[in-house]
Specification:
The chain is an alpha/beta fold. The chain has 3 domains: 2-56; 62-406, Alkaline Phosphatase, subunit A (3-Layer(aba) Sandwich); 431-486, Arylsulfatase, C-terminal domain. 30% of the residues lie in helices and 20% in strands. It has helices at 7-17, 20-29, 38-45, 50-56, 87-94, 108-117, 121-124, 132-135, 150-156, 178-181, 199-205, 228-243, 273-297, 339-342, 369-376, 393-396, 471-486; strands spanning 2-4, 35-37, 62-68, 97-103, 160-166, 186-190, 213-216, 219-222, 248-253, 304-310, 322-325, 328-331, 346-349, 358-365, 408-411, 416-419, 422-425, 432-435, 439-443, 449-454. The strands form 5 sheets. The protein has a 10-stranded mixed β-sheet with strand order 8-7-6-5-9-3-10-13-4-14, sandwiched between helices.
């Protein structure tokens, strides 16, 4: 890369800095060809005032990606929720862009691996809700190119990276440096219920809320008398204060409101599942407000992109709850490919970069996040890195009228079993759904389209249009059939680092 600086620009810069030495330097540089190398430009940048150099390190936008755990649109008031108020999340939507057609995966682990890698679960093999700490044997192998995370790529672009909240991918007892190897500079993570013959350890590792068991750079331990979500939030706040002078990429996979429902510090007397769930949602909204306030206080709001979403829909009773949205009861649909299970709330806010008050029907899903982050950070994807998503950065920044996506996909809750070779699915082809802005198809384990829905006229997916003779429906079916035919007949297996089973692995 070469940088061209005109003699006139150099004169302005040097004389602004002042000093006879700089005037002499200018006379010298005018004798040099106007095309300067990056090295030479950097050398003379040292002569500039220190604040000019500092400014150059903060031109890249910060990214804060907040992802609630098991929370459908029926619990976000700006999406029509009737039983809750979420003023801080609503403020993000009012001051930014609210998406109507954004897909997560149906369950926790598939959503997380899709987000981290930019690849669909059928490509990575993480198509099951089978978290490593609980089941064992397989471990996310960071050495393999196909498992490259957005954090590693952002780190390469000069970003300080941090994660706090729920991880659920590695067993930190045998991989204490997993977060670092995945590309994070700092972290405070609940591991995700580590299986163990030691009943006491198994019990304490499940705690994500009160007396949480959290893994940091210093190791894993129980924080007696503390509330986990507060610790995760505080960790990110301290990270921002420490790194505010450089670009930051922060990942906040919240632990709430996933079961077990627990009382919060603000509502200690909530008893029923529904009341505790509502209290947890209100606390989520409070934490969003705390983080945004900190960004404001640090003076970095205009260059910090805040994204709020969820990893999948709400859980159904008896462990979950029923909410109301736009005049209708909504049964939690986590673990299913219904719209209430995979069409996630997705809000993007940045006063200096993203236009305010926009409601968008553009398509996006979690596979888009890795390429989006890289483009926002001024980088390019490695040529040999395969991703399924595409960057939505141009759309967020108002440079295009739509995203590149013609369709989006959700999958990842099929059955599996534990073998000596690791986790293996019981079906070679996972069920999945594919949709565009209007139509949606369901695809079976036999790789056949079994349902077609017109979401414009049938948003609750009650009428199956398979077999319809209407040209509009046949055209939609044929369009999706092309996509289905392009997919492999067999899903990949998870890419593991070879490792013998541990004593605590569940058989």
């Amino acid at each position: 890369m070469r940088v061209s600086i005109s003699g006139h620009l150099c004169l302005v810069l040097f004389l602004t800095a002042g000093g006879s030495a700089l005037k002499i330097a200018y006379k010298i540089i005018m004798k040099i060809h106007s095309s300067l190398t990056v090295l030479l430009a950097i050398s003379f940048a040292c002569l500039l005032p220190s604040n000019a150099v500092a400014e150059s390190t903060t031109t890249k936008p910060n990214i804060l990606y907040i992802m609630a755990d098991d929370l459908g649109k029926e619990w976000i008031s700006c999406y029509g929720a009737e039983d809750i108020e979420t003023p801080n999340i609503d403020a993000l939507a009012a001051g930014g862009m609210k998406f109507n057609n954004a897909y997560s995966m149906p369950a926790c682990t598939p959503s997380r691996t899709t987000l981290l890698t930019g690849k669909y679960p059928w490509r990575t093999g993480w198509a099951n809700h089978w978290d490593v700490p609980r089941w064992g044997v397989g471990y996310f192998d960071w050495k393999k190119k196909e498992n490259t995370t957005f954090a590693r790529l952002m780190n390469d672009l000069g970003y300080a990276t941090a994660a706090a909240g729920k991880w659920q991918i590695n067993d930190f007892r045998i991989e204490p440096e997993a977060m670092k190897k995945h590309g994070f500079d700092d972290w405070a993570m609940w591991t995700g219920a580590e299986s163990s013959p030691d009943e006491e350890h198994a019990k304490k590792s499940t705690r994500r809320y009160w007396d949480p068991y959290i893994h940091t750079k210093e190791g894993s331990k129980t924080y007696k008398g503390k509330y986990g979500p507060d610790l995760y939030t505080d960790h990110l706040i301290q990270f921002m204060r420490k790194n505010k002078e450089q670009p930051m990429c922060m990942y906040f996979p919240m632990a709430q409101p996933h079961t077990p429902v627990a009382h919060t510090p603000d509502e200690p007397n909530a008893k029923s599942v529904l009341d505790r769930h509502k209290a947890m949602v209100r606390y989520i909204d409070k934490m969003v407000g705390q983080l945004v306030k900190e960004i404001d206080d640090l003076g970095i709001r205009d260059r910090t992109i805040v994204i709020f979403t969820t990893d999948n829909g709400s859980a159904a009773p008896p462990r979950g709850v029923i909410g109301r949205r736009n005049g209708r009861e909504v049964v939690g649909s986590k673990g299913t490919e219904k719209e209430a299970g995979v069409c996630a709330p997705f809000i993007v806010n940045c006063p200096g970069l993203v236009s305010a008050g926009l409601e968008s029907d553009a398509l996006t899903d979690f596979s888009d996040m890795l390429p989006t982050f890289v483009e926002l950070g001024g980088g390019q994807l490695p040529r040999d890195l395969v991703v399924d998503g595409s960057s939505i950065a141009p759309y967020l920044l108002g440079k295009t009228k739509d995203t590149e996506r013609k369709w989006i996909m959700a999958l990842g809750y099929g059955s599996a079993k534990l073998t000596k070779d690791g986790i293996r699915p019981t079906k070679k082809f996972s069920t999945r759904v594919i949709r565009d802005k209007r139509f949606k198809v369901w695809v079976s384990n036999e790789k056949k389209i079994i349902r077609l829905h017109d979401l414009k006229t049938d948003p609750w997916e009650e009428t199956n249009l398979i077999g319809s003779e209407l040209a509009l429906h046949q055209k939609a079916f044929n369009k999706f059939q092309v996509v289905v035919d392009s997919l492999p007949n067999k899903d990949a297996h998870p890419s593991y680092e070879p490792r013998a089973a541990n004593a605590w692995d569940r058989k």
